[in-house]
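Protein modeling request. Please complete all fields; requests missing the sequence field cannot be processed.
Requester role: graduate student
Desired output: 3D structure, token encoding
Chains: 1
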Amino acid sequence: MSIAIAAYYKAETAAKEIFYYIAVISGIIGIIICDSDMALVAVVIPLVILFPYSIKSVALIKKYIVTLTAVLLAGRVAGCIKLIIPDKVRKLSNIMSGLISTNNIFNIIIIVLLLLYVLIVLSDNRLQKLLDNIKIRIVQIIYCVMAGGFGIYAIVRVISDNINKIGAFYITDNWGSGRGYIWSNLINGYKNYPFIYKIFGLGEGTVRKNLSYYSDSHWDILYGNVVDNAHSIWLQMLVTMGCVGVIILLVIFIHTLVNSAKHGVPDIIAGFGMAALVYAVQGAGNILEVITFPMFICAMAIVNCNKKIVK
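Delivered output (311 residues):
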């Protein structure tokens, strides 16, 4: 879905725009029905990243409004699906289920967005002149500083709550369906590695060995199941391939973002760049790392092997 959102922005023909937009709505419907908090990343990150890019022109602003509308329209459609075949839809209890709410506020927001779109269409030339007179670069910098400040605050808050062992962001062993236990003990095991293993890791598929032999808990069973992956692509890489593996993966990831953002890249390449960004964030806490990591690598490979970029 994140591929479709970014590709929709880069699409140069009406046919491509319609195709990608249908894909966006379909993807959001799927995310709502699966009711995954982590899947929400695929919606939030593109909208956050594309906002400063969207204010450069009227055409892009209209696309941004239409994309926001797609999120709410998908909720309406998913709600209808749930009414028609309730037994076939996962029980909704998480953040994404809020979009299906019958509260009229969502319908009001849709109407407001549509009216805003019509207003922009009617005042197309005047709005473009206004944008031309505004220092867009300054607005983008302010937005990025605010977003960065929020990110720093979130990181500081997480660290503070876990040091004090109290607060909304305090990660207990049961936090995140057991992620808290897995992550804390894997990090503890990594700290106990011999120096050479800290550099190069224990080797692929050694999460269980970390928990059994190196962590102070010496326990690799959680909720009656053997823990054999870190549920995080970055922690998995650190434990199995060491800090060298993390650095190499991070360099490839940054290279991917740079290549996908270059001027003139095809719409689908920009889409896979966005997908790589989404997977990098989502994979940091994904419940099943083995699903996320191959997609993450494939997305980066597609971007970096693009012939227009290679030339």
